[in-house]
Amino acid sequence: MSIRPLLEARAIAKYFGGVKALHDVSLTIAEGEIYGLIGPNGAGKTTFFNVLTGLYRPDGGELIFAGDKLQASAPHKAARRGIARTFQNIRLFGNMSAMENVMVGRHVRTRAGVLGAVLHNRKTVAEEAAIRRRAEELLHYVDIADRADDLAKHLSYGDQRRLEIARALATDPKLLALDEPAAGMNGAETGELRLLIEGIRKDGVTVLLIEHDVKLVMGLCDHVAVLDYGQKICEDVPAVVQKDPRVIEAYLGGELA
Amino acid sequence: MDIFVQQIINGLVLGSIYALVALGYTMVYGIMGLINFAHGEVVMIGAMVAITVIKLLADSGLPGVVIVLIGLFAAAVACMAVGFTIERVAYRPLRKAPKLAPLITAIGVSIVLQNVAMLVWGRNYHSFPPILPTSQHEILGATITSLQVAIVLIAALTMAGLMLLVHRTRLGRAMRATSENPAIAQLMGVDIDRIISLTFVIGSALAALAGLMVSANYSIAHYYMGFILGLKAFTAAVLGGIGNLAGAMLGGILLGLIESLGAGYIGDLTGGFLGSHYQDVFAFFVLICVLVFRPSGLVGEKVAERA
After folding, report:
1. What is the pTM of this model?
2. Nearest chain B residue to A118, by CA
3. Contact assignment for B170 to A108 by CB distance below 8 Å
4. Would an 8 Å CB–CB cutoff place A55 in contact with chain B?
5. What value of ipTM does the predicted structure carry?
6. What is the pLDDT of residues A94-109, one digit of tens each?
7. In 10 A of CB A196, how many CB atoms?
């Protein structure tokens, strides 16, 4: 396991009124690993994702990404730095085609602006072709190339989850944060998802995974952190987390045994 | 029959102009859910700047078409600057305010622009210098001028260009993504402040073109012209389904036709009791009907989906 940290969260805090959604949460994700974030509903997992991707401004602490501090509350800058995510409740651009959704994901890595759009010069045309090519590759990668021209809202639930992953990958992330990607999937679909996530890691992308499917998390992740009431109660390799009495007590009950 | 054809032609010309202006309303609404009631004044400023520049150059000996193009360029630059500034100064600080605040601000901006225009250009009507060729063509017993042909063609080409921009370019994709979900668009690296600014700038450029067309077609411009024109273009956008580009174009053309035909036949229909100067009635009758019977417009999505 590589020791170089890709993401260091230092004492992250986020409060909503009196509710401590996140309190003093520190964790370290190493480059190239699959890192699981688990905990009961309302434990603060999605809040952490929102802070990480700049959708929420944290009330305390800091995030160090690839050696530099992440600027709080600037989603398009987080994307530029190499952080991409999917959502628990799928948030695609429903009235755009699957292909276009992925093409929007390329936005952060491309340049053409007003002048390019109006002049339609050679550089712009070449860039647009490259965007399309990459989007096609990614649709193949997540295995929904045959749905490229369908509107995102017309895709099946499982395909929408895959499309969200393809769109996130289109931003060339160093860190891909997946928020409950297996939610609502059957056993076979979850198996395919697992292969997909392993493939993504093999291609050099670090994965941060929020998931309720404990078997998937324990089988897939190199490290797991457990949140409960906004605080980290445990962080270790799955085998240790599984046996940690605090974890069993606080959240998972007998489910892990 | 020839009256009918004539009114169809007039309606197409008027409708092309409405469509250009309606696009400005609908683009801004699509991206940020705001009715920019100041948009009509941007059209007026486009007309005023164009006429001012064209008057200055009228005796320069340049060909009329070249002078008009220079006037259009000046109007476009002025309108884009005005549109950009309005968004920056009046709407951006209210981005997170309740919807009513920017709406009332828009009405305020509209009044401010009217009054500034009155101070700059005075209360008088400004006439469009007769520098364009005035050849007329006969079609099915009706007359159409070269200018009218040019208006319809240029409007159609401009709108086709806009559709290509929105549906075939990286910028257009970013605009559509922002319109569907600004927060998620940001996660894809889209700088939504920039996209919103650009939307205002593009809408204002279309307004400048429309302003020039109106003043050339009616040979006149006035500091107050933006008000009623803006309301009608807004009606056209609502008729088509506000937020929808194709809807704005369709709504504009339809409204132009309805108004023209209405004005052409209202005298006959009421036995001479009401004359063609009642043509404004039709636009607002259409607006009321759409709002009552089909608030989502002809091609718009259901209102509930947008909320």
Report:
1. 0.89
2. B165
3. no
4. yes
5. 0.87
6. 999 999 999 999 998 8
7. 19
